[in-house]
Amino acid sequence: xxxxxLTALSSALMLGTAMQASQAETLVLYTALDTADAAAKAFTxxxxxxxxxxxLSTGELLGKVSAEGNNPKFDILWVEGSAVxxxxxxxxxxxxxxxxxxxxxxxxLGKKLVPGSEAFFPISVSTTAIEVNTKKIGTVPLPTSxxxxxxxxxxxxxxDPNLSGPAxxxxxxxxxxxxxxxxxxxxxxTLTNKALSGLQSGETVNRAVxxxxxxxxxxxxxxxxxxxxxxxxxxxxxxxEGVTALPSTAGIATASKHEEAAKAFIQFLLTTExxxxxxxxxxxxxxxxxxxxxxxxxxxxxxxxxxxxxxxxDVAAKNEAAWKQWFRDQFVP
Amino acid sequence: xxxAFDISVERWGSGVAAPALWAVAxxxxxxxxGLVVVQAFLPGLFDLAGPSFVPSLDAINHLVTSxxxxxxxxxxxxxxxxxxxxxxxxxxxxxxxxxLTDIRGKSAFSALPWVVFATPSYFKGLAWVxxxxxxxxxxxxxxxxxxxxxxxxxxxxxMMVMAFSLFPIPYFIVGSRLEGLGGEFIDAARVASAGPWRxxxxxxxxxLVPAIALALLTTFxxxxxxxxxxxxxxxxxxxxxxxxxxYAATANYPVDFASAGAQALVLVLLxxxxxxxxxxxxxxxTTTFVTGRNRSLARFHLGPWQAPALAxxxxxxxxSAVLPLIAIVLRSLTVSLxxxxxxxxxxxxxxxxxxDVSSIPGQGLVWSVVYGLAAAVLAVAFGLVFAYxxxxxxxxxxxxxxxxxxxxxxxxxxxxxxxxxxxxxxxPGFKDVPLYGSRLLLIxxxxxxxxPYCLILMWSALGRLGGSLHEASRLAGASPGRHLVKVxxxxxxxxxxxxxxxxxxxxxxxxxxxQFLLPQAGPPVPVVIVDDFTQGRDAVACALAIxxxxxxxxxxxxxxxARRPDALSQGDS
Lengths: 333, 573
Prior knowledge:
The structure holds 2 protein chains of 2 kinds. By secondary structure, chain A is an alpha/beta fold. Chain A has 13 helices and 9 strands.
């Protein structure tokens, strides 16, 4: 019996080795973006380089990256939000690739979003705005600012920044715009229903708004445009205080053994061809605002990106733990 | 009546491969869990800058000082106790009804626990959200008012969902014990002029006490370790649970390993504590039923109670399976939730996507079946040998083993999955083994998650075997291996098939392990479903869930057909 067990174990190890070996010449892309699938297929078609996708939500993906620590298994990490990428760059998980995107025909916002470290690069952008269920708010006037959300206290849905990269980008940008103390005060008066204020994902937020559990939500604008395209009774409102850009960014692992192929992939994403492939994506991520000139976003998107603010990643990264803890204590059941 | 596991009154051939089996079990479960839990005390063990062995009790203290975490623990205990009692009552009643009476449609009703068990808890939770939320189908159809819909999301609604969702495990455990009860006890009671109720209350139920205790413990473990209900319906009810809090600690950068470890430790203590209490109360006593001369069970005639019993079963079937399935089917056939059931809202687009094998959902379906079957082969093969070896070991070893199995069954897959990353990507000596990121590791992870269930099911079956069988083999000069193959396997074949089916089904729907051990190619179904939900393609997610349930139903049907109802009667010959 002992020999059977040992034989089974060694067979399993050999099988594992064989499986690994067969994947040796393939890029591994960790991503939280749905657009990655179409982009990867187009890249493979163009270059012949295979891309294996490991797709999870931002929080779960970052949890996996965190557990892998200094032995990451991705070649490229592509997620939404710049603050966490900044931290990964500072920790040496992501490798600076100076000059990688000099040929990219970035929009004005795109150029501003490239970090000084050049350890990660903006691929697409969206922002966080106000999602309104026009059937549920009744005769109350539409909100025009973040401050107006207090009028809908208890009926406002929001994602938990502890679980959502985009939500943390919003929270940081909101504090940057209105100030930390004022921002915290406003949120405490707005997010008074814990069943709605610390949701896990954009979809749970949408479900709450569509079902009528919430009348209004603090939501990523790309997913709002998706709902509008699907015919839901939803409106998007860009608050008068201004919004902060939420770039999707890609970076290459310092430990990557396929650096040149990884660089080629990121460069491909920033071509017209790459962006158009991404725009074929079904679902919220396909409604991003393009960062390459001459490309128009899907659906009813209005190009107002020129007015979007840029997040100070260092401030956000420095306060990340404290702000997330505050949000969790205040608004998460 | 003999005592549990008395087949080894005289130790017989136990343990030639036992150390190797224990080592494999430790690597599969103990090591990954240990690495997570130990971080409650050594929070810097996996620091990027290098391991720090400075101990700290901060994470443990935080469990008490943080109102959110403390409330999560209390809520989890309350929900675990209530859920275990409710579902054990329901599961036991169902097992008694189907095993001891002549209720009509028995075959169809016997499939119900499998259908409910096969539906992952996160889907059952979501289905009730789709049905009962103020914008859901029931409100849309005018069947309930928005106020009633909102009121559903409270303790009473949660209890109802749990009773409807969690009864299969008690049903399987109690039903398995009933299967081996033998008719002689009931016949004796009948001869003594006892009525059906008296027989059930005074003869059957007392003999089922060990199984009921095991069902309570296992279900308590299942409830406290469940992530699906925690993240869906309980979350909607403002009910924070430990598993959700662990998820919150791990789905982040950086991961709060210390908090996850401390809360995982609480889960271990909760379950281990319940096992100790059960042991003190004599809950480990079991009864040997299967001997060389078993009679099959004679059924009680329901007579005038046939119609009420059928009505009750119909209602129960509708609540536990039909309504949730209808909600998922409707969503899979409609473009948007807001569009309700308007004709223009119906579409087959999502279904077509799932059955396109070149699509990610299509690939996920194919790969998950492969993963599930492979994991089942692995878990059942190892579980059978391990369970048999342990059944031949000393009483203390058996108690320790069953305690460990019950304890590990409670731990959410998310903790084990995290442990797997730490072992195979970070731990010196293991990180160079090329398993991390492979499909094989995912299969091993699935098998490890299901292993405690396999062991419990097999021990439950092995515990019914009388000492006379083993004595006969031993006196006839048979080796333990030959006894296993020639005598034990035919008698517990049914339990093996159930374990195979359970492992396959659990693996196909296992969410946390799928997420954290996601292979670099060949995504499994749970990840695709969650990703589709996250990206607003809930129609595709629901269509994929229905298609997967169809596959799982087929596996269940095959398992059911393969079971040999006359297996026990072999003992007659």
